[in-house]
Amino acid sequence: MNYQIVISGVGGQGVLFVTRLLAQACMDDNKRVLTSETHGMAQRGGTVISHLKVGTFSSPLIRPGNADLLVALKEENYPQHKGFLRDGGKAIVNAGEESVKGADLTPVDADAMALQDNNLHSTNLYMLGAALASVEVCSLERIKGQIEKVFSAKSDTVRANALLALETGYNHISKEL
Amino acid sequence: MTQINDRQLMLGNEALARGLCESGCQMATAYPGTPASEILPAVAALKKSETLESLHVQWAVNEKVAFEIAYAASIAGQRSAVAMKQVGLNVASDPFMSAAYLGVKGGFLVISADDPGPHSSQTEQDSRLYAMSAKIPVLDPDSPEQARDMVDLGFRLSEQFEIPVMIRPTTRVCHARQDIQINKVIPGTVEANFEKNPGRWAATPKFRFKLHNELEAKLAGIASFEETAPVRLNPDTGKPSKAIVVAGVSAAHARDIVNELDVSDRVALYQVIQPYPLHTAFMDEILETHSDILVLEETTGIIEMQLARRDKVKGKQSGHVPRTGELLPEIMEAIIAEFCGTESRSSIMEPVPGRRPTLCAGCPHRASFFAIKRAAPKGIYTSDIGCYTLGMNLGAVDTVLCMGAAISQAAGFAHAYNDEKRPPIVATMGDSTFFHAGVPALIDAVVQKAPILLVILDNRTTAMTGNQPTPATGIDVLGEEVASVDIAKLVEGCGITYCKTVDPMDTKGFITHIKEAVAYTKENGPGVVISRSPCLLSMSKAQRMEQYQKVEVSDDCDGCGYCVSHFECPALVLDSDNERVDIDASLCSGCGVCVHVCPKGSIVPGLVN
Ligand code: SF4
Ligand code: SF4
Fold this sequence. Notes:
CATH architecture of chain A: 3-Layer(aba) Sandwich
CATH superfamily of the largest domain in chain B: Thiamin diphosphate (ThDP)-binding fold, Pyr/PP domains
Number of strands of chain A: 6
Bound molecules: iron/sulfur cluster
Distance between the termini of chain B: 48 Å
Mean pLDDT of chain B: 95
Strand order of the largest sheet of chain B: 3-2-4-5-7-6
Number of domains of chain A: 1
Number of helices of chain B: 21
Low-confidence stretches of chain B: none
Largest sheet of chain B: 6 strands, parallel
CATH architecture of the largest domain in chain B: 3-Layer(aba) Sandwich
Strand order of the largest sheet of chain A: 2-3-1-4-5-6
Shape of chain B: globular
Oligomer: heterodimer
Low-confidence stretches of chain A: none
Largest sheet of chain A: 6 strands, mixed
Mean pLDDT of chain A: 91
Shape of chain A: globular
Number of helices of chain A: 6
Number of strands of chain B: 23
């Protein structure tokens, strides 16, 4: 099964980090992956967008109207990038329940969850967890494995916080389903 | 050691680095610039992980110097490569043009990364046009994997014809990530051996003419070099009247699009591997076989230009393909669909303006700009390329032309105005840019006694491109200690007598210094203030905690918005009713500078540190 996923946010939020984590996890699942990332000036607080394509693709870019999933790490990215979604595609947006509206949109208040867990630097991972529960692009276990690997040199607390964020985001969505 | 037959997820730039190390490259040099910045660090990482002792890796002070260093290794017989962004090639164009005539010994690759869009550049220039102008063959990869493969191919082409070879990736190749089958790393084993031959390596104009003729002969051979010949991507679909010719990432897009639109039986799809020189046999063949040919390439119509048959060829010249901007796959889909008489399935998105980039909260540049505007409010502010270009958001950057131009433009303004009417002229330039191209301009300003103030924003790093070291840092790309050059001494060596090093985070003191310096330059010619404070991204957490100063907004704040528009710190947030400003604690770095910004004194040091 092919997947096309757009992940967007603001420079400094860890869009690239999440993209790479997901790409690597899909690769560990023996899938072919292709991403396109934003580097350079936009990383200084400007809009940052990643395209992630899993499966048999040769182009690294997603054309508007083709994405299965949009993960918006900031609310403002939803109106900006919703055009990438195909009919029936889903958007997971970091926003309070009532604040954004749109067809196929699931708000996930990752900022609030992160604040509650005193885990401010992991907002992106709450969102990744929620995204994983929304499309079956790869298993939660694979991502956990990746997190263990990437944070292997970091303290136990850092690793535990990352995993907590991922699982909380995941459970938030799978509960609803 | 990495395992062979392994797949690895790799950025295009890492794939290029991998290619260099899989092909016995012995020297790699670069100057950082988006989208090429990650190539050299990836080579350095492989040098360390694979203990490649015979490989010399280094940042150079600019692209011209990087080019010349790597080129010398090549004429001493070793495989070598230089990497840069497309505008870096402008800086290196002098040796680039000349090296085409002299040729090479060991394989020599010039990796020049283009940025159609542009996403992070001053221009959308097409490096392939430079290759054409220099008469150097160029390879155009469509993906990280192909970029890696083109390194070895390029080296062989370079050695067979004794000519520099350009590899021209674009942003969508450099910053694409793909799972790639990696090959074995092969350490280079060639001992440097420079064979003297002044008629070639120091050729005078008479010899140059001869070399130019030889170059033309080489090009004729390269235009029939089998391995770089165009490839028919759908060989089973016969000889339709229509053909599409693609190159670079446009080829990657086209493969998916032609499949999805299901038009493969209606058109012949060709991928050009080497856009210049275009293979002679290919040109003859497709112009004979097909009557309707569409060319899709970025950014200039190089292939189209060589397929010189206006009656048969559609592209940028003919107006069928946009001449500017990135050739996005949705644009290509619409063009291909129309060309094949079918409907496009994707939509074209109206661009919604996103968030503009800004200096980090607590960036020392912001403090410098604020002080400069205070000290010389009616000044002309020339500036340059780096994070500090974003000083534009604060109204503290009036001009940005190219690397190093802040000083020469400042001097030009100074000479253009007469003494009575001349406003204060303040140039800002980063430390890395000063080394790169500022020094000659400063010497000129000294000689001409230009009444300008240069503020060198010395944050000890090349921040915008990912915090690469500068010649002052004393650390190289491998993280090892190297010599360091003292900026103040260099400034004095240029002939400047007024040079002060000041901390911009001391707002009041800094404003006083800038005022003094401006007054001095008015009477005496150029002066320099070195504004020294480290980039936040190169500080450790402990260092940042140490200087953390909690700030608060008092109840006196009436939401006038002065700090937001004049200081533009992303951590200062005006509420939606414009009633007051709050501090976003997740962004604030606690630099404390904004305390001096609020005209009403409503931003105050917090009680708890
Ligand atoms: S990266 Fe460094 S130099 Fe660039 S804006 Fe941030 S603090 Fe300033
Ligand atoms: S102290 Fe003020 S200027 Fe400095 S980062 Fe915080 S809000 Fe911005």
